Amino acid sequence: MDRFLIRGGKPLHGDIVIGGAKNAALAIMPCALLTSETLSLKNMPQIVDIKTMCDLIHQHGLDITIDDKDPHHYSFKGDITNTEAPYNIVSKMRASVLVLGPLLARCGKAKVSLPGGCAIGTRPVNLHLDALTALGAEIEIDGGYINATAPKGLTGTRFVFPFVSVGATENTVMAATLAKGRTELLNAAREPEICDLVDCLIAMGAKIQGRGTSHLIIDGVDALHGAEHSILFDRIECGTYACAAGITGGELRLIGAKTEYLGSVMHALEECGVEVFQEENAIRVRRTGSLRGIDIMTEAYPGFPTDMQAQFMALLSISEGASMITETIFENRFMHVPELNRMGARINVHGSSAIIRGVHSLSGAPVMATDLRASFSLILAGLAAAGETSLNRVYHLDRGYEAVEKKLAACGASIERIKS
C-alpha cells in the first residue's frame, strides 16, 4: 500500500484549484440510467470513487467516454442491459446504492447488493427502501441483495422522511422523475449536492419544485432526455484546504470556490481565528494570529458537515484553550483520535463528544488512516507537526481527493508519496 511521508512545520502559500464535488458527481452519474440519450458531465473529479461508479454504470450497459482534451469531462450513453449491481463493485463504495432508484424507475426491477464504503457507522438503507416502497416498489432483502420490482410501475406519493438522509433523498428524487403523477417529499435533505442533482435532472427534462428546501415536489414525466451539466465545486475539499492554511499559519487562494455554500464551515473557521475572503473566482484563506478553541456539533445541512469534523479536530488540536466536537450523524467517526494523540494531541472521547485540549505543537509519528476524511486530518496534523510523519493506508484518501500531494507540494509542503 502507498504511504505519504510528510515533513511538517512549513506554512502553505499559493493557489489550489478546487475540483468538482465528489458527493455531487456520485449522485448525478446514475442519472445517466434514466435516459438512453447522452448525459455529458463536466468538472468531474479524478478520484477512485468516480472510477468505481463508472465501472458500475458500465456493467449496466452504458458506454462511458472521457474527453481527450479535458479529463474532467465524461459522457454517458447507452441502453440498460443488466439490472443487477454486483457485490464486488457495490461493496467498495456506499454511493453505489444510488443506482437502485434509476434502475427501478426505468426498468421496473433492480437487484442491488447492500453497500459498503468507509467504516464510520452502520448507515442503513432502510429509508431508501421505505421511500421506494411508498412509490409502489415491492422489495425483499435476500442473500445480501436488495431485490426490488415495480410490477405496476412507480406512482407518485407523499412521503415524510423520519430523519434527514442525503442518500435516500437522492435515490427517491431520481426514481420519482419517471413515476406516474406527483410525488411530495417532506423533510428532504437540502445539501448543495442535492441542489446540483436537481439542476441536472431539470436539464434532462424533469419537473421538480422546491430546490434547496426540505419540501420537494416532483411531477413525473414519461421520459428524460440527454443534457450537459457541470458539477458543483467540492465544498468539503475547499474546507479541507482552508484548514490546511489555518493549521500551518499560511495563506491559500482556493480557486473556483464560493463562500455561499460554506456557511457553517466558514463561520467556524473565522471563530477559531482563520480569515476567509471571497474574491472574484476564489476564496482567500489565511491565519495571522493564534488559533482559538471552539465548540462544534455536526448536523444536517445547513449545519456543520460531518465530513469536516476530522479536519477541524486536527486544526483545534493546536488551538489555545479547550474545544468540543459532538458527532450526531455517524456513531463511529472518532477513529482518528488515537492517531492524532500519537502525534501529541490531547483528545478524550466521551460518548458522541470529543474534548480537545489544545497543545503548543504536534510531533511527527507513524500513523494509519481509518477512513477518507480521517486520512486528511492526519495529513493536516503532519503538515503542522515537528519532524516526520508517515501516513499509511492512503488508498482511503485517493477515494475522495484528487492529486493531494501535488496540490500541497505546489504550495510549499514537504510531502511525498512512497509507492508500495
Supply the key terms.
UDP-n-acetylglucosamine1-carboxyvinyl-transferase, Chain; cell shape; 4-stranded mixed beta sheet; 2 domains; cell division; 14 helices; alpha/beta; transferase; 420 residues
Short overview:
Its EC number is 2.5.1.7. The protein is α/β, with parallel strands linked by helices. It has helices at 22-28, 48-59, 87-90, 100-107, 126-134, 166-176, 192-203, 235-248, 263-271, 309-316, 337-342, 372-384, 395-398, 404-409; strands spanning 3-7, 13-17, 39-42, 63-66, 74-77, 84-85, 109-113, 138-142, 145-149, 158-160, 182-186, 207-209, 215-219, 227-230, 251-255, 275-278, 282-286, 295-297, 322-326, 346-350, 353-357, 366-368, 388-392, 414-418.
Please indicate the percent range of residues in DSSP E strands (runs of 2 or more). Answer: 15-25%
Average residue pLDDT: 95
Label the overall shape: globular
Second CATH tier, the architecture of the largest domain: Alpha-beta prism
Spans of 5+ residues with little confidence (pLDDT < 50)? 117-123
Helix content: 25-40%
Number of separate domains = 2
Q: Cα-atom Rg, whole angstroms?
A: 21 Å
Class based on secondary structure composition and strand pairing = alpha/beta
N→C terminal distance: 5 Å
How many helices in DSSP terms? 14
